[in-house]
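Ticket #4471: structure export looks truncated?
Reporter: QA, pipeline team
Priority: medium

Steps to reproduce: submit the single chain below to the structure queue and open the exported record.
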Amino acid sequence: MPQSSAPKNTLRASLPGGVWGVVATPFQGSTLDVDLDSLAELVEHYEAIGTTGLTVLGVFGEAAALTPGERRDVLETVVESTSLPLVVGVTALATRPAIEEVMAAQAVAGPRLAAVMVQANSARPEVVTAHLDAIHRATGANVVLQDYPQATGVSIQTPALASVVNACDFVIAVKAEAPPTSVAIGELGAAVGVSIFGGLGGQGLLDELMAGAAGAMTGFSYPEALVACVKAWHDGGYEAAERELQPYLPLINFEQQAKVALAIRKECLRERGLIKDPGVRLPAAAFPEALRKTMAVHLKEAAAALAARTTVGSF
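Actual output as written to the record:
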């Protein structure tokens, strides 16, 4: 039987488990304007396949490359296109700009806003605690605390991260993306009473579930596989989850290549017809044409796996 991923302190609020899809921001044309029509279709797809909720304006949503007006337009489109609960990313590491971002998200998302995702901005737990406390006092928002040193350049030790969570009762989840993620998730699960999610495109999902993760909060061009894997884990344990995810592992690994992961994922989403244009904004790197044949092989395998699953009525 699968290990329990329920928070240890059931009296404390915790973000629901499952798969929270991290939404890419589609752009279009040579000007790379935000493609709101593609965005609407993409989030409608996420809802149709059974995701728990959506994470919008995260790192893979290229939020740091969007103007405040574009971030508002993206969030408005998501709110209008789906009924799913939302976690909205905060790009700023400094407190005052972060508060402004949270307030802007609250103005658009209203009660649909389950939490804002705030990145650990210091290796010192007292600094992170003060940062989160100031945000919460100013906005009242619940927080998903993200540990993603690859994006922030900040490395915080797991015991220090746990102390932040325990000091802030408005933190309702942790997104653990500091490798080895399964080790961090296991240690956090023993120390805090909130849901813990893996990310990184689902590369470590099976190990993370075994370590006690509540699910995944990540992007992948075949999110159906992540949804099926997490459901199978809760219904039948590791073997069932592994059967669901195994056919997609080559594509998951392919998508998570350093420096070009975002461009690869967007190209895969375009190939699936989920967005119209795979463009990325600087400083993100463009899709390397040398990878196109390899991508086609992995996408064909994933499409066949999804078709077989659909044929037997799993979706």
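Status: closed, not a bug. The export was complete when the record was re-opened. Leaving a note from the reviewer for reference: The domain at 18-240 is CATH 3.20.20.70 (TIM Barrel).
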